[in-house]
Amino acid sequence: MVFQRFLDDRNASVAPLLALSIVPILGLIGASVDYGRASSARATLQSLVDSTALAIAQDAAKASPPLTQDEVNAKATDYFNALYTHSRTDSAQMPGGAAPPVVSATYSPTAGSVLMVTATSSVNMTFMSVLPFTSTQIPIAASSTAKWGNTRLRVALVLDNTGSMSQGGLGTTASPNKIQALQTASHNLLSQLQKAASRDGDVYVSIIPFTKDVNVGASNYTQSWIDWTSWNANNGSCSSTSRNNDDDGGRRSATQSTCSGTWTPANHSTWNGCVTDRNQNDDTKNTNPASSSPFPAEQYSVCPVALVPQSYDWTALNNKIDAMKAAGNTNQAIGLAWGWQSLTAGAPLNAPAKDANFQYQDIIIILSDGLNTEDRWYQDATSIDNRQKILCDNIKTAGVTIYSVQVNTGSDATSSVLQYCAGTKPQVADASKFFLLKTPTEIITTFGQIAMGLSKLRLAL
Question: Cα torsion at 220, 225, 229, 230 (round to 10°)?
């Protein structure tokens, strides 16, 4: 009965219960603090390991003769320790209170080179160490694997050379203007891609300047993938049976449709190299134009500089960037069509054959500062955009990734078609691959970001 009364008595029961619960409460609080410190230390450790793996892999990829296992391990340890020393908050501990890490690197230079860097450490527990049933340390570890040597890049730079590219920020003539900023950015991108190649052929780049047309090179006037029908009808001379008081003895400047006498097309060698869109629906495909729907030649008065097919002649590529001028109307689709052609085996641009021992990433980077204004058929953006969307879907279906950059320094609307085209999947826009820029100088930083993403070694964490 006495025991039962004790159990039934509720007087002054709070204090004993509080006393009994204070230990687990403090334990939970201490665990939260200690594991939070351990999580912070592990994040720092992972960052240092990632940076080490990337840096040492770049050295190993370019080393000739190849680095040995001992050399890689020594380089990784030295590089990590330098980063670790810089990140420490005192002379004994890494951020988060972790003990000095132990670092190791494993290097395999065959069958696609692989470098694994690991680091282990521990964090001393402050609160939980007072509990008799817990350890005094929390172990932490991080690892990072860099792989290279079996992936190659094919990049097509599709670059707006239209008249508005001569403007500076906000429609002014501020320096640098957009074409100047594009040239600087493109030089930087080429430099980074060149550094990413450990040997010739690891990275190929094509340059496709575009306006309303693309210049494929006037020397190609004998090629079967050129359609001369329209050009012949618009470029030539007309002779009349009567002089008609003409100063040229009866020969006059005209077109075939306005000529009342004998029409003689000009020699194709006088062509300036410009072509316009293929017949629909071949304008949205990369089929061989030598066998189906050739590209129509056009004597466009503001023909851009000639394109450069896939190449690792870095001097020629940089010279082409310097030669770009700003003039003409905007037809992004013709630039994309030739960017895709430059990545395609066979005529007209004959992209280099791909080695079955390597994986390839095909990339198109398109930059434009305005909305579409004119193509072969239309002079309104909506109609041109609709054709371009079909083209972009086909490009992405073929496994090509598109990066879209819009330089909007004025009051233009954000380009829905460039947003739509960005990414890797048809009919799916990838916001991470669309860039909306407000100033010319942003072209430089954005191209730098894209180049870093393309050239750095992929880390498998």
Answer: -70
Same domain flag for 221 and 328: yes
Q: Please enumerate, as own/partner, the contacts of 29-36 that have beta carbons within 8 Å and a separation of 24 or more.
A: 29/127, 30/125, 30/126, 30/127, 30/128, 30/130, 30/131, 31/127, 31/128, 33/126, 33/127, 34/123, 34/125, 34/126, 34/127, 34/128, 34/138, 35/138
pLDDT of res. 136: 73
CA distances in angstroms from 399 to 167, 334, 343, 422, listed in the order given: 35, 19, 11, 13
Residue 126 confidence (pLDDT): 65
Residues 278 and 400 in one domain: yes
Query: What is the extent of the structural domain holding 398?
Result: 151-229+272-460
Q: Could you give the C-alpha distances from 332 to 108, 230, 351, 402, in angstroms and in order?
A: 45, 22, 21, 13
* Positions of the chain with pLDDT under 70: 1-34, 86-98, 110-112, 126-135, 149, 169-175, 241-253, 456-461
Predicted pLDDT at 99: 76
